[in-house]
Amino acid sequence: xxxxxxxxxxxxLAVLVAASFVVNLGFSAMSPLFPYLVLAIKGxxxxxxxxxxxxxxxxxxxxxxxxxxxxMAARAPVAGxxxxxxxxLGKRGVIMLGMGIYTAAALGFLAFNDLTAFVGLxxxxxxxxxxxxxxxxxxxxxxxxxxxxxxxxxxYSSSMLIAQVAGPSLGVAVYKLCLAAVGPGGLILALKAxxxxxxxxxxxxxxxxxxxxxxxxxxxxxxxxRGVIRGLRDLPPTVSRSLKVMYINGLVNGLAMxxxxxxxxxxxxxxxxxxxxxxxxxxxxxxxxxxxxxxxxGWLTDRVRRRKPVALVGYFAGRAAMFLLPxxxxxxxxxxxxxxxxxxxxxxxPSMRALQADLAPPGLRGTVFGVQxxxxxxxxxxxxxxxxxxxxxxxxxxxxLLGYDLTGYIVPFWLAGGMGLLTxxxxxxxxxEPSPHQD
Length: 439
Hints:
Elements (H helix, E strand, L loop, with lengths): L9 H21 L3 H9 L6 H4 L8 H29 L2 H20 L3 H29 L2 H37 L4 H22 L15 H10 L3 H36 L3 H29 L3 H14 L9 H29 L5 H30 L3 E4 L2 E4 L2 H21 L9
Antiparallel strand pairs: 1-2
């Protein structure tokens, strides 16, 4: 499977795309409602947010950061271990088990109204995430020819994005319908209604994965854990250096993203718009513009047979745009900056993953992808914890710069942007792209 003249990779791509779309539809349906659910359970939000006026979202920043941290604290070590084991023992079973754990976690969210339980369930989702997404990408890298790899990874990534176009609006619609049925007194029940949809989509995705064929034993399969260790030890120096730089970048980027994700939720709800309808529209537009950019990235890098230049364009432009976000108080301007960030990140992300797959030897890609996720998720873990406290410390402060009064939210956003520009520079200087004829 995966030979240069072989189209056998199209079937597993189709299965993974279908499974990815279904489960991400459920996750994206919940995403715009989850912060409100946390605030409601904590007691900060006692009436529907669309009727509440100003929502003090920063009051839940620490809890939101803790929930993200729990997810990453579980995902980081499991990603490294599972990537290693998937190379030695097989990827299909790991992916299916992870999706089953996703289903169990979604059912758990329906059963509990306690933030401590939520932390444990987010950790369980972190375990599942580590078993599904990096292993699935490594699976695709194994079964696709090199110059179809960019397209395959982009199509796979686009399935997530297309789901995220429809999902947020679907989730808000489910919430609004449930709220109309139960009234304001059933706010928590209404906010949890999209979680039932998530449980159903996780179960459907698990069933879909039964159609995924195992990777045939052969030249792309190492023999046991010793074979994985031996393969890593024998990497060429330029490949080893490039992968190590990408690991460092993953750690720093994760730290920046953890800070940014915590800050962005609080900033948008508190400073720009509080109605979940507009949050859902933002997520939808963000994902909608990412789809053509992601597809373009895959086609372009396969066409020109270069990954690094495309990745760098997205790296530098996306990180620079972070500096603009805390300057936008208008919802229209927020959408415009969000569109810019979405497009440039969508150019860089699949290009970087395809480059990483090109650098990794066949049979070791699960390990390489897993270690990358270990570093990235460890950074997000630290960033999520830091982000909550940074937001609480600076959200109600203001700074005067060049004659302008700026909100204290510039601190987490500009800190994340500066970290991103640093990692882009390291990537430009020290990551070496392999020869177009090398696989």
